[in-house]
Amino acid sequence: MASVPVQPLIPPPHLDRRWLRRPSLGKSALARNEARWGLIFLSPWLFGVLAFTLFPMIASLVFSVTNISLAQDEPLRFVGLENFQRMLADPQTWESLGVTFRFAAFNLPIAIVVPFVVALVLNNRYLRGVGMFRTLFFLPYVIPFVSGLLAWQGMLNLETGWVNEFLRIIGIQNPPNWLQDTTLIYPSLAFIGLWGIGAGVIINLAGLKGIPSELYDAARIDGAGSWATLRNVTLPMMSPVIFYSLILGIVDVLQYFLVPLVLYNGTGEPGGSTLFFNLVIYKQAFNFQNFSYGATLAWMLFGITLAITLVVFRTSRRWVYYAGER
């Protein structure tokens, strides 16, 4: 029996060819209602981004090319790159950048390694009271940071601090001046920073809990010890979490500000070792009321932070392993 050839569907010539298109669901009443409610729920966040992030960034960019300053009675005028030239010629700019980068090189590894090690210990299934230890490590994170700084300032006091009192008890008659000795400033500030590692511990602990147990079973079957398992299983699987902690740590340490402001009132003592770059921005903008120069310094810090994070993102493909990728 001969088969009948199937003719292609041809629309009538008086009809538009758009009748063959799939109907758009995006124009339905349900889709419009969902989009409307989505915008309503997003509106507080959008308003916050526009009012407290985007608009201040645009305003600071305008400030950086003008001469806005309450300390000088001058008419508003466009100065171009004068503020940037002044910034590059100012010795305090490079001095504060040097302080910031030296402290970052010292503190950043500690801020990444210590929460990871604590999370490794808390992830031990044979450790009793893990829930209590998790609470104790996270509890300082919810305490107001300034209150914690003032408490540490008292504990590290040369004469009355309980840290030096303990050292005298065990036989050290001349304990160090933790907050005034320039050789101990960075270790002291890094030690104070460990007070708030609770969030980092929880993040690392969540990453460790997400590692499939089959990988550890396979490593044990192959005869891998603890170090080999850590190097070949734990670290590769934890590399996305470490990458996340590294990016946040870079941003935080380059914006280091509150600790030297509270402990030393922003003076940079002792010997300029705490004159961080963000502190210089604050003093220029609010103490000296030179808003244009302060905005210029802020944009320099933004550019440095952006450049470093882009480099880290660029190199992450070599050491960050995502289990879902092929």
Content-based structural category = mainly alpha
Multimeric status of the protein:
single chain
CATH superfamily of the domain at 89-316: MetI-like
The number of E-state strands comes to 0
Secondary-structure element string: HHHHHHHHHHHHH
The CATH topology of the domain at 89-316 turns out to be MetI-like fold
| General form | globular
Portion in beta strands:
under 5%
Task: Please write the CATH class name of the domain at 89-316.
Answer: Mainly Alpha
> Which CATH architecture of the domain at 89-316?
Orthogonal Bundle
Number of helices: 13
N-end to C-end Cα span: 52 Å
Structure write-up:
Helix content is 63%, strand content 0%. The protein has 326 residues and is an all-alpha fold. The protein has a domain at 89-316: MetI-like (MetI-like fold, Orthogonal Bundle), CATH 1.10.3720. Helix 3 crosses helix 8 (198-209). The chain is globular. It starts with 28 loop residues before the first helix and ends in a 10-residue tail after the last helix. 19% of the residues are buried.
Put the structure in a nutshell:
With 326 residues, this protein is mostly helical.
Secondary structure elements and their pairing?
Layout: H1 29-64, H2 82-89, H3 91-122, H4 130-138, H5 145-155, H6 162-169, H7 185-193, H8 198-209, H9 213-221, H10 226-254, H11 258-264, H12 277-287, H13 291-316
Helix pairs in contact: 1-13, 2-13, 3-7, 3-8, 3-10, 4-8, 5-11, 8-10, 10-13, 12-13
